[in-house]
């Protein structure tokens, strides 16, 4: 701003000069302040150029009198302008809602401080929160009209709005680089589904006081425990449920990625196994899960209730080539009086034919009808041999257990991994000198069920014939894996009880001894009415596991998570679908101790 002086000639006194000092500002909402007026005349004023011009002496006097009120005048002028502008904007907002056939929402939206400017930046999550108490029809119309209006103004359009406009053939939405470019993936995480509402991990954690527990622990120890991961997953799923947001597979992948970035010490295996992760699984629709479970559990059982259930699809992709002279070997096995060496030779000479037959079988009963040798007292040896034919020579629980038993005990006793006091006391009683005992292995696997808690559910019929959902307990998981009986008679009574329930009896282990694992004389593997006897508990576990995979049998639902851990950790097999982050945490701990 500058001060300028203007000089002009007056008719009465040509030599008289007019000096005017003023502030030059662009013409806007206010008016300039006159610093000094000396010897001013109308002639001089006629040549003044600037934001305003005075007409006569009365105007000059009036302006001089109001000089002290310039601040109020400026505010009044600005206030009037803003009021007019606000009224115009409000009227435009009303007309816009009317064109959307939503004029009845004008008062509601105005009370929520919604206006034209807000409509330009409002996000999908804000709309969902805004219309919680409104009719769903109004929400649909509002979303679609807003998307079209934004697109017509070439404003940013949500990805979901873009997809909707594209399907309806409306004006093509504004494309942005983040939508068109391929998103960068990290650690094998796929790109999110574009139809999802964008909710970041920070949004969720900022609204939950429990997040401070997680962040404080991570800042102190640079890692998270299993309870923190469970808390974080529950926090995410509860947020989506409470706000009526849809959790898609893509959204769960994105949130997993954000977890890995925020907590760099975490691994993807803690949150996702296979295609579905823990976040997505927890947020899945309960009704759909129930229907799937109902269809699977109540499927017809043509082979009778005592026949173990065979998986509907064979996970093995091995191609077997049956031997041309297999039938001759089968006849020798059936009718000839063979020595042990001759028997093994004939059994081996038709192995490809037998594996092909087992692969195509629909039930264990049909397998045993074709190959009754499996039901001989030494049939477990044949199971062991054929398992090696199909899956090759691999490490197992017999070789890995001795070197990892101590690490397993220490892991279970650390922190809150076992919350049951009697079980903790049972483990604490195991001394270093007891680690090689067979009963110690049985005791520790019994306790392991309290860490690998069953999460499966089943639909069963009660005594009245009504269907009900049953959630398996730790005790039911233990019983489906190992049943201890003080006498042979009680063992047989338990088997008769299982048969009377009319359900499939999957392979499991029986122990003859007391419930405290002090004295156990023998172990048995029950397989389709046959009981293979063993002196070693680990050998019984080994044969029971191999029977599941050789004959393509399903794990018992009650203890499927336990058997999946045995499969993944001790046998390096990945065929099971029932996996969890607990399994990966435990497996990583044991491998670290043995390395």
How does this structure look, described?
This protein has 595 residues and is of the alpha+beta class. It folds into four domains: 1-65, no CATH class; 91-180, DNA polymerase, domain 1 (Orthogonal Bundle), CATH 1.10.150; 201-284, no CATH class; 397-594, no CATH class. The protein contains 28 helices and eight strands. The protein has helices spanning 42-46, 57-65, 70-99, 106-111, 116-121, 124-130, 136-152, 159-168, 177-180, 201-206, 211-221, 226-242, 249-262, 278-283, 286-297, 326-335, 340-349, 351-360, 364-370, 379-391, 397-413, 421-428, 438-448, 474-481, 488-500, 537-550, 560-570, 581-594, and strands at residues 19-21, 36-38, 457-461, 467-471, 482-485, 508-513, 520-527, 530-534. The strands form three sheets. The protein has a four-stranded mixed β-sheet. It has a two-stranded antiparallel sheet with strand order 1-2. Strands 3-4 form a two-stranded antiparallel ribbon. Strand 3 (457-461) and strand 4 form a beta hairpin. Helix 7 (136-152) packs across helix 8 (159-168), helix 16 runs antiparallel to helix 17 and helix 21 (397-413) crosses helix 28. The protein starts with 18 loop residues before the first strand and ends with a helix.
For the secondary structure, the number of strands is 8
Number of domains: 4
Q: What global shape is seen?
A: elongated
Mean pLDDT: 75
Distinct helical segment count: 28
Assign the structural class, choosing from mainly alpha, mainly beta, alpha/beta, alpha+beta, or little secondary structure: alpha+beta
Strand content: 5-15%
Measured between the Cα atoms of the first and last residue, the distance is 79 Å
Q: What is the spatial order of strands in the main beta sheet?
A: 5-6-7-8
Query: Low-confidence spans: pLDDT under 50, at least 5 residues?
Result: 1-79, 159-196, 289-294, 311-315
- Report the helical percentage: 40-55%
Biggest sheet layout: 4 strands, mixed
**Radius of gyration using CA atoms only:** 40 Å
């Amino acid at each position: 701003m500058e001060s300028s002086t203007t000089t002009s000639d007056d008719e009465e006194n040509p030599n008289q000069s007019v000096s005017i000092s003023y502030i030059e500002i662009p013409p806007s909402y206010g008016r300039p302040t006159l610093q000094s007026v000396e010897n001013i005349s109308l002639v001089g004023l006629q040549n003044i150029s600037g934001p305003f011009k005075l007409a006569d002496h009365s105007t000059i006097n009036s302006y001089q009198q109001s000089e002290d009120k310039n601040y109020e005048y400026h505010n009044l002028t600005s206030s009037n302008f803003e009021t007019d502008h606000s009224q115009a904007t409000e009227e435009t907002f009303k007309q816009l809602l009317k064109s959307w056939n939503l004029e009845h929402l004008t008062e509601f939206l105005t009370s929520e401080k919604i206006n034209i400017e807000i409509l330009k930046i409002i996000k999908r999550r804000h709309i969902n929160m805004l219309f919680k108490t409104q009719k769903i029809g109004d929400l649909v119309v509002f979303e679609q009209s807003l998307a079209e209006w934004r697109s017509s103004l070439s404003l940013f359009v949500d990805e979901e709005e873009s997809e909707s406009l594209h399907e309806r053939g409306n004006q093509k939405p504004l494309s942005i680089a983040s939508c068109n470019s391929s998103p960068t993936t990290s650690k094998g995480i796929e790109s999110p589904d574009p139809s999802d509402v964008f909710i970041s991990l920070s949004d969720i954690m900022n609204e939950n006081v429990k997040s401070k527990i997680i962040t404080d622990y991570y800042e102190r120890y640079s890692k998270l425990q299993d309870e923190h991961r469970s808390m974080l997953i529950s926090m995410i799923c509860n947020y989506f449920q409470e706000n009526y947001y849809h959790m898609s597979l893509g959204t769960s992948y994105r949130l997993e990625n954000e977890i890995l970035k925020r907590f760099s010490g975490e691994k993807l295996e803690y949150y996702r196994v296979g295609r579905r992760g823990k976040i997505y699984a927890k947020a899945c629709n309960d009704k759909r899960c129930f229907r799937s479970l109902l269809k699977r559990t109540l499927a017809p059982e043509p082979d009778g209730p005592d026949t173990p259930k065979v998986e509907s699809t064979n996970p093995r992709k091995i191609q077997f080539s049956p031997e041309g002279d297999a039938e001759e070997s089968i006849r020798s096995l059936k009718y000839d009086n063979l020595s042990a060496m001759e028997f093994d030779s004939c059994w081996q000479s038709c192995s490809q034919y037998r594996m092909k037959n087992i692969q195509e079988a629909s039930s264990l009963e049909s397998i045993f009808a074709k190959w009754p040798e499996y039901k001989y007292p030494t049939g477990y040896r044949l199971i062991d041999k054929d398992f090696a034919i199909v899956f090759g020579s691999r490490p197992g629980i017999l070789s890995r257990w001795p070197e990892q038993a101590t690490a397993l005990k220490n892991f279970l006793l650390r922190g809150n991994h076992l919350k049951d006091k009697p079980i903790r006391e049972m483990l604490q009683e195991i001394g270093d000198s007891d680690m090689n005992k067979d009963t110690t292995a049985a005791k520790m696997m019994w306790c392991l069920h309290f860490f690998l808690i069953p999460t499966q559910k089943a639909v069963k019929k009660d005594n009245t014939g009504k269907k009900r959902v049953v959630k398996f307990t730790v005790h039911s998981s233990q019983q489906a894996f190992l049943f201890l009986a003080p006498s042979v008679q009680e063992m047989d009574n338990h088997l008769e009880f299982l048969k009377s329930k009319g359900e499939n009896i999957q392979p499991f282990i029986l122990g003859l001894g007391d419930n405290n694992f002090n004295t156990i004389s023998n172990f048995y593997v029950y397989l389709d009415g046959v009981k293979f006897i063993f002196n070693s508990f680990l050998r019984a576990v080994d044969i029971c596991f191999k029977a599941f995979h050789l004959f393509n049998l399903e794990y018992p639902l009650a203890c499927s998570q336990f058997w999946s851990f045995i499969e993944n950790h001790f046998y390096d097999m990945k065929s099971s679908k029932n996996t969890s982050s607990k399994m990966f945490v435990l497996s990583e701990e044991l491998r670290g101790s043995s390395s």
